[in-house]
UniProtKB/TrEMBL annotation:
InterPro entries, per the entry: PG_synth_SpoVB (IPR024923), Poly_Biosynth_Transport (IPR050833), Polysacc_synth (IPR002797)
Major location (coarse): membrane
Keywords noted in UniProt: Cell membrane, Membrane, Transmembrane, Transmembrane helix
Pfam assignment, any one: Polysacc_synt
Organism field: Oikeobacillus pervagus
Protein name: O-antigen/teichoic acid export membrane protein
Compartments it resides in: Cell membrane
Length: 540
């Protein structure tokens, strides 16, 4: 892999990580502004459908276009890539406008699926207003995504990274300031504040697009210079290219909207199940805890772990295509182990420290603590699904990602209401866990069969990781118990102190055990070897 590509991948990964980080932690001030009481559930009622619509509108085309531009650039057929880019911009503009119209027009039809009872806090009209507010972003996002794909196809990752971060910053600033002004300056309603907050997606997209257009203006001359070097020996029709692009991108669409589909099922069934249990008045508040508050915290270890593990996946693709089976095995071993090494301790930490963690983010809530503790283990499943689906793409068996996801979704859909009746709010979590577990098992079976991969090493190493986590958990639990004698974990600042102390102690124990047993060296290679040498020199 070239140093330029490695540098570009690092820049893009860093930009994506910063964007995700901002997207995870803005909820703390946002929650304080809107004041809880189910307001965030109204935000989710609009945002989840938007995420599904945006995935359908882009249909994985930007990613596929970047791949094809890179392919034809390597063949010095630069005109083919430019022609594809121009047609792609027209296509994305059309699908964006069409998706906006469909979402805006169908909002009154979709809202009744969410509002199951008149006893709920919000009405069908409230949900319709919020869905329509967020739908405007569909006009810009597909167009902007394709321009990012064009830059990435030229191995120019900076514009995509910068625009992603700027988009997120603009969205969050407008979201927070807008919601605050509506509620505290204009004395508006919660519905108006949430509508402004969801409309922030359009503002963010506009800011990100301006950044990309600026980069295009700066680099247009160099792109045009490439056209002068075009060989002009290939005449590829647009229809042929799009046929291949669609086949390539469909699995990405399904994987990209997997979590949103699970959330959509909760939106369509949770309030109904709560109403049947006689809890319609509390449904919006409980849904907020389940599908917004807790879910945002659970996604933190998922984002961190998959960011590290996903860096190995392109190498798996390269080794598999080159038929280097032994190297594929080593890389898969490393991918799974790194994922579990990072995710398991984070999950255990969240489970033990559920009360102070939830308090720091949203304020004390007994129900929030219980839901977060039950939801935390699902982070491991979210991570494993993302990585196994990416590996299937790498070994060219992406068709099975659609099958495994559909089976998981059907299980979630069929089990959600019965499990909610049996276990209340936690039933929705169990249905999600079952759906994801079955999808992961199917993905692992396909990987084992088509990559001729044995999980023996991963099983042995996972056992070691679990032993270290048990030791770490004892230390964290004992520390937490001792600290609660002096600190109240139901108060925000004291809860933060408890988290910091327990996290440092737990991470220290886990790192020490992993370092002394060479587990870190086996997982992260040369960097740890160099660290050990430095430590030996300093000791000497």
């Amino acid at each position: 892999m070239s140093s330029k590509l490695i540098k570009g991948t690092f820049i893009l990964t860093l930009g994506t990580f910063i964007s995700k980080f901002l997207g995870l932690f803005y909820v703390i001030p946002f929650y304080k502004i809107i004041g809880g009481q189910g307001a965030a559930s109204l935000y989710q009622y609009g945002y989840v459908p938007y995420q599904i619509f945006i995935s359908i509108a882009t249909a994985g085309v930007p990613l596929a276009v970047s791949k094809f531009i890179a392919k034809y650039n390597a063949l010095e057929e630069y005109a083919v890539g430019r022609r594809l880019f121009r047609s792609g911009l027209i296509l994305m503009t059309m699908t964006g406008i069409l998706s906006f119209i469909v979402m805006y027009v169908l909002a009154p039809k979709f809202a009744p699926l969410v509002i199951a009872s008149k006893e709920q806090i919000y009405t069908v009209e409230d949900v319709t207003t919020v869905i329509r507010a967020v739908s405007f972003a569909l006009i810009l996002v597909p167009f902007m995504s394709l321009i990012r794909g064009f830059f990435q196809g030229h191995q120019s990752m900076g514009p995509s990274a910068v625009s992603t971060v700027v988009e997120q910053i603009a969205r969050i600033v407008f979201l927070l300031v807008g919601a605050y002004v509506v509620l505290n300056v204009l004395n508006g309603s919660i519905v108006q504040a949430i509508s402004v907050a969801t409309f922030a997606a359009f503002i963010g997209a506009f800011a990100g697009l301006l950044v990309l257009l600026w980069y295009w203006w700066k680099r247009k001359r160099s792109f045009n210079e490439l056209l002068k070097k075009d060989k002009g020996t290939m005449n590829v029709s647009i229809s042929e290219m799009y046929k291949e692009i669609i086949m390539y991108s469909i699995p990405f669409v399904f994987v990209g909207i997997a979590m949103s589909l699970y959330q959509l099922i909760d939106m369509m069934t949770f309030n109904k199940a709560m109403a049947e249990l006689g809890k319609a008045k509390q449904a919006d508040i409980i849904f907020e805890i389940l599908n917004f508050s807790s879910q945002k915290i659970v996604i933190i270890p998922v984002s961190l772990a998959t960011a590290f593990a996903m860096t190995v996946v392109p190498l798996v693709t390269q080794s598999f295509v080159s038929e280097k089976r032994e190297m594929v095995k080593e890389q898969l071993d490393q991918t799974f182990q790194v994922l579990l090494f990072l995710t398991i301790p984070a999950v255990i930490g969240i489970m033990i420290l559920a009360e102070p963690v939830y308090t720091v983010f949203y304020g004390y809530s007994e129900l929030g603590t219980e839901v977060l503790r039950a939801y935390a283990p699902v982070a491991i499943l979210f991570s494993l699904y993302s990585v196994t689906a990416a590996i299937l793409q790498g070994i060219n068996e992406q068709r099975f990602t659609i099958l495994s996801l559909l089976i998981g979704i059907l299980l979630k859909l069929s089990l959600n209401i019965p499990l909610i009746h049996l276990f209340d709010v936690e039933g929705a979590i169990y249905a999600t866990a079952i759906g994801y577990s079955v999808s992961i098992l199917l993905n692992l079976f396909v990987i084992k069969h088509f990559a001729q991969y044995s999980f023996n090493t991963v099983f042995r190493r996972t056992l070691l990781i679990l032993i270290f986590n048990v030791i770490m958990a004892v230390v964290v639990f004992a520390s937490y118990f001792a600290l609660t004698l002096f600190f109240d974990s139901g108060k925000e600042m004291q809860a933060l102190i408890v988290i910091i102390i327990c996290a440092l102690l737990g991470a220290g124990v886990y790192f020490f055990l992993s370092f002394r047993t060479n587990l870190l060296e086996m997982l992260f290679g040369e960097r740890v070897v160099r660290l050990k040498k430095k430590l030996k020199i300093s000791r000497g």
